[in-house]
Amino acid sequence: MRKVLGAVVSALSAICKAGTLLSFAVLICVVTVQVLGRVPGISAPAWTEEVARFALLYLVAFSCGLAALYGELVNVDLVTNALPAPVQLVISKIVDIIVVLFCIMIAPGAYGYVVNSVGERARSFDMPMTLVYVTIFIIPVALAVFTIARLLGFGRPMQHEEMI
Length: 164
Hints:
Main location: membrane
Radius of gyration: 19 Å
Number of domains: 1
Distance between the termini: 40 Å
Low-confidence stretches: none
InterPro entries: DctQ (IPR055348), TRAP_DctQ (IPR007387)
Subcellular location: Cell inner membrane
Pfam family, one: DctQ
Largest sheet: none
Keywords: Cell inner membrane, Cell membrane, Membrane, Transmembrane, Transmembrane helix, Transport
Helix content: 55-70%
Order of helices and strands: HHHH
Strand content: under 5%
């Protein structure tokens, strides 16, 4: 069973890594076009602003779960750093459970938001907004799935040290 779960986590991680890289590449290309559009004689298409926002949403959607899995999410640890390591571990597990429960609570609303967006189109180019709004559903699902994977030992614990 652990091998199967490990394979699922690896496959989802690979999909999210590819999605993160693709989103970042699109964002870089679109922002480059926007910057070049500031040069006299070169104009940037109007849709680049909207595509940049969409790419940023996808970047967050694909990378937030990976950040949870690898223990790289923002961590407020002013109090926990002073505690013994076993207590820090327990608090970390409790926080992970709270994150999973919160994600499970908001996922139905996020799904409803996506369903209600059917028929809407992007303003500057003809694209269904459902393709954009699905990121609102991907975020809590990815956070929940990868946080559960970390709870089951497939990721890394949250980092509790300064990296300065």
